[in-house]
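Hi support team,

I submitted a single chain yesterday and got back a structure, but I'm not sure I'm reading the token output correctly. Could someone confirm the output below corresponds to the sequence I sent? I've pasted both exactly as they appear in my results page.

Thanks,
R.
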Amino acid sequence: MSSGSPIWLFDLDNTLHDASRAVFWRLNGSMTDYIEQQLGLPRDEADRLRIHYWRRYGATLLGLERHHGIRAAHFLAQTHVLPGLEAQLHMPPADRAALRSLPGRKFLLTNAPAEYAKRVLTALDLASCFEGVIAIEGMRVFGDLRPKPDARMLRIVMARYKLPASRCILVEDTVANLKSARKVGLRTVWMQHYLRHNQHGPEVGIRLHGKPAGVCVRIKKLRALHAWRPHGTSGAR
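Hi R., thanks for writing in. Yes, this is the structure output for that exact sequence:
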């Protein structure tokens, strides 16, 4: 890694908090509700279509936008209402303290909508930690929505914020996103804390042993980032 302080890009769900427990199952239900209502499908068909687009495109919204003319803003607003969400959010106090004291610039990079991301950060008392929130609304490439793991989007985002790839570290729970970031030149940290009992996120059933291609280091607690020297890949496990 080149000289200069590190620039941390943190994912949100299942990286900073336990989204498997608090969010993913509710989001799955609200997205299925939305497809059922907007496309007039039986519920089982709507659920299958949600899963199909998620697996094909990495996000259900991309399939709905491309094949059904669904407006992204409407979909995101309707599916992320989640009443009472704040009371269900959980983050270990040690992780919160570790994030606050971590040296370097910090940005949130999430495929979630901005309003939801800011709501979660506020509830977790983390809003002041981040210099910027890069949410799905800011992930268009030539007019098309290109959320993580799209490499073109990553390059555009880094250029927009003037972030040198050689100083950036992505901390994420999703291996596909880490692989893409590594190809663009970022260092990558696989956050595994919330994956062991995950039943609803993108990494359901993934092997947590070993180090997949594109992953520089894997951690279970954010405080492990303090022991890692970003110019190398040792220190955290």
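A quick pointer for reading it: The chain has ten helices and eight strands. Let us know if anything else looks off.

Best,
Support desk
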